[in-house]
Amino acid sequence: MLQHAETPLREGAAAPEPDDAAHGLDEGDTAGGELTRLLFDTDDRERIHAEWRRLVSGDAFAHRAGLTPAERTALSYERLRLVNDTVAGTGAEVLSYDAHRLAALHEWTGFVDGGLCTLASVHYNLFLGSLLDHDGYRRDLTAYTTMERTGTFLCTELAHGNDVAALETVAVLDRETGGFELHTPNPGAQKFMPNTSLTGGPKSALVAARLLVDDEDQGVFLFLTPLSDEHGHLPGIRVRRLPDRTGTPVDHCLTSFDRVRLPRESLLEAAHGRFDKDGRFASSLGNRRKRFLRSVGRVTVGKLCMSAGTLGMARASLAIAVRYAQHRQVAAPRAGERIPLTAHRSHHGRLLHALATAYAMTFLHRAVLDRWAAHDPTDREEREAAERIVAVAKGWITWQARDITIESRERCGAQGLFPENGLADLPLNVEGGITAEGDNLVIWQKAASELVFAHEAGPATTPEGSRTDLTDLPFLRDLHACVERIWQTRARTALRNGPSGDPVGRWNETSGAALEMVAAHARVAAADAFLAATDRATTARPLLEDLARLFLLHELRPHTGDLLAAGHLTPAQVDSLHTTTNHTLSALAPHLTPLAAAFDLPAEYLTTTPIANADYLNRFTY
Q1: What phi and psi values does residue 193 have, to the nearest 5 degrees?
Q2: Considering only Cβ atoms within 10 Å of each terminal Cβ, which end of the chain, N or C, has fewer?
Q3: Radius of gyration of the chain measured on its C-alpha atoms
Q4: What pLDDT, on the 0 to 100 scale, is given for residue 460?
């Protein structure tokens, strides 16, 4: 099963020196080219990824040393306009409706400019996408599609983050004019963290506010609100810049409204809420919470974008760390000899584990994105299932991205601490993705409450009998499904036995097991996506099989006790897990560089990243 074991990398032995083609993936390398095609949407690669890859290859996206936070923020807005120039031919509206291209924009820009990744998500998805989703065809969007005005999105409040459905900003219908009065009733209702400063030019916002019609609360809707012009912020709008946060800076602010008058057309209408010509309010949804979820429906695509941004950061960090590990020479066992860091299992083993996870993350993201793009929005059950797997994948991918960017930085030692080497900001930028568009733990709690009874976890058949080979991929996949079933059973038992009449106490007894179930559900989904990609491979299939095996074995280790107790593993299998993993690492070690090169980072980006080059010692400019 270990197809590459004929060239194992022994502990202490020098790794093969990579050539230039391996550093920058030569499409003539059939296996390497196939890996790239599988990672980047195969036949649709040019449409989805190519324009963004070319964009970040330009000089405008090269690292600029010595900028202040304010200058870095201004640069992110300049780059946002370059993004808009790139889509001018097809149109910004088309981009907002194309979830694949929109996610890919984040995937390719996130590792060069985390601030740009945030701004693009807000402008194209939350702002422009929401406008289009709410009878947007009736509006003139030219000012936003040309970026004469930048769009922002004001939803969360200082006192209402993940419980944003309880927000307090109000928009009161004025019967006399037909318009609305937008108001912040108390300090806790200030909009928290939107990019509403004057940096980047004039801005308009979509403001989530509670619609009051004749003193009756109709739920939360979005209101198109001009914030500033070329002279400054408009009357009644108060903006205070927040302190700089960790990671790439963005102009985050506190924003409040003092009885700001808005015209009738400021309300974003659709079937979930609109006024007729006689001023009567009507809604297809009688539940105010459902109206809110319809208003902020773009958050689901935002989860896909946040996942994509951190996914790109993880892959970039690994590509740099692998190249540096090949270049960095250390003392060999024999006096006077030098060997690369990759000669040591303690170094290349960690990178290979991270690479295997990065491949799993990428294939999972592709599968989830395809499902979201293909779902029938009129089928409520299908839509809820698609939204749930998007949320589960977002949590798993962003958490894995944090681990990978930290690991990559550590493997580069002190060099990884210098921003010029492309790694220092990435873990901190991933933190933003973990929190944005729904804090991971909160969205997993929701998924957990649904998955306890929403489906039956576990493999189709019990992985027992003749299937005892720990190199067998379907067997390994089913073991992870057994882990999900074990935790689902525990969660169901806890929920049934929890204290009656105490919903919080009941869920407290259940949530630990339920969250473990969600984590296992994510791993099974990642495994399925990985194995599906492996089945599509030809020349690269043996390599992908070993990489999938490494991913499944590594993720299995913390759960061997449960599997042993349930009879799904034998003591001999548990005992052989380490050896099997080590053999798989030996098989993959000679392929470390081409596996990372398949991430297809632009040569221009890598050339300007000092430690990604063999002559990095001559580039010591910091």
Answers
A1: 85, 0
A2: C
A3: 26
A4: 59
Q: How far apart are CA 63 and CA 517, in angstroms?
A: 41
Tokens (6 digits) for 128: 């422009």
For residues 195-215, average pLDDT: 97
The DSSP bridge pattern shows strands 170-173 and 329-331 to be unpaired
Give yes or no for a contact between 309 and 433, defined as CB atoms under 8 angstroms apart: yes
**In whole angstroms, what is the distance from residue 317 CA to residue 306 CA?**
17
- Name the token pair of 120: 């693009």
Taking residue 328's Cβ as centre, other Cβ atoms within 10 Å add up to 20
Residues 302, 192: Cα–Cα separation, whole Å: 18
Answer whether 474's CB lies under 8 Å from 465's CB. Answer: no
- CA 61 to chain centroid, in Å, comes to 21
Residue 222 — very low, low, confident or very high, per pLDDT cuts 50/70/90? very high
Report the distance separating Cα 303 and Cα 438, nearest Å: 8
What residue type is 253 in one-letter code? C
Q: What are phi and psi of 208, to 5 degrees?
A: -80, 120
pLDDT tens, position by position, 313-333? 999 999 999 999 999 999 889
Polymer length in residues for the chain: 622
Query: CB–CB of 196/227 below 8 Å?
Result: yes
For residue 464, what pLDDT band results from cuts at 50, 70 and 90? low
Which residue is it, tokens 């219908």? 173
pLDDT of residue 29: 52
Say which DSSP state 266 is in: G
Indicate the angle between helix axes 571-588 and 541-556, nearest 10 degrees: 140
Three-state DSSP class for residue 195: coil
Tokens 């804090």 correspond to what residue? Answer: 439
Per-position DSSP letters for 335-403, written without gaps between them: TT-EEEGGGSHHHHHHHHHHHHHHHHHHHHHHHHHHHHHHS-TT-HHHHHHHHHHHHHHHHHHHHHHHH
User: For the chain, percent helix, then strand, then coil, each to nearest 5?
Assistant: 60, 10, 30
